[in-house]
């Protein structure tokens, strides 16, 4: 597909959206489908949803720069957000562990489920024509619910007594990985199908792939089950191993076992990697953002590019088939587009530097999302009333 020629302009309806949520923004996602391909003959109505410590869920029109709807004030601050654009739904979790399902067009509450525990992560997937939601808790459990009525299907202990710091579903929805940043607990890969039956903790020990010292991971979007893991190779020198595995099931001793077939491996040395951001592109490209630097590698360790465009810590990153957008605590966004080098290696080209305001009022961007026609970033302010900054791509 040919990449459109675009330039970017800030939404000038206001310096920021009117009626910003009077609290910290805890979640920012597109409700309109960000996978819609750019078509110059159409104008997509980009809509984002936000959750906030003001105890509301809100929807915003990007092009119009206005709020579309807001829920009533909930009893607890909303801390997690997940949108399902194709189903027209929104899912939230509050600070007490209450999961709620909302109509994304109107903000009407549709269902509620009380987990009675802290919620760390939410993921959805479709398995056997059933839309499911899996919740990763602060106590290390995975709770799987039906999406339409939030009925519990299963519950198991993934990392006992530790928070589920990351929880990711493979592009083909066949696999799920969850883990914690603690070095003494292994991350686990298991089949999503197992979460649909009476899969117990004893079976989890034998019917899962354990990855030692793994504290973050990502799936490569163009490979159905290719997993990139970041593990501690040598904590004394902050050396990390970036290991890429194809997850398969193979028959061994009269039973099917989950195995990881290694297809890439390299090490990288950098001090203080605990907050590194890891993303994948295509089938063979890894993006690592740490502090003020972003680096691009092939899965076998070929260094493709480095970027030092930010003066503050990179706090968020959005990756799609056309571009990469980084957000930073220096109150700027950087926009890069994918390109092929003469040697046919994939790289990025820096295109735009977008400013988000003044440090007199704001601390920096905390997150960013991008679809094919817009960019939206959440800005943390000094007075606790966070704002959204929106930018539109124009032909």
Can you describe this structure?
The strands form eight sheets. This protein has a four-stranded antiparallel β-sheet with strand order 1-32-31-30, with no helix packed on it. The chain has one helix at residues 201-206, and strands at 7-10, 25-30, 47-52, 57-61, 66-70, 78-84, 89-94, 98-103, 109-114, 119-127, 130-137, 141-146, 152-157, 166-169, 175-179, 187-191, 209-211, 214-219, 226-234, 239-252, 255-269, 277-281, 285-290, 293-298, 303-307, 314-319, 323-328, 332-340, 346-355, 362-370, 374-381, 387-394. The relative contact order is 0.13. It is 2% helix and 55% strand. Strand 10 and strand 11 (130-137) form a beta hairpin. With 395 residues, it is mainly beta.
Largest sheet: 4 strands, antiparallel
Low-pLDDT runs of 5+ residues are: 1-8
Number of helices: 1
Secondary-structure-derived class: mainly beta
Beta-strand percent range:
over 45%
Q: What number is the mean pLDDT?
A: 88
User: What topology, given as strand order, has the largest sheet?
Assistant: 1-32-31-30
Q: Helix fraction?
A: under 10%
Q: How would the global form be characterised?
A: globular
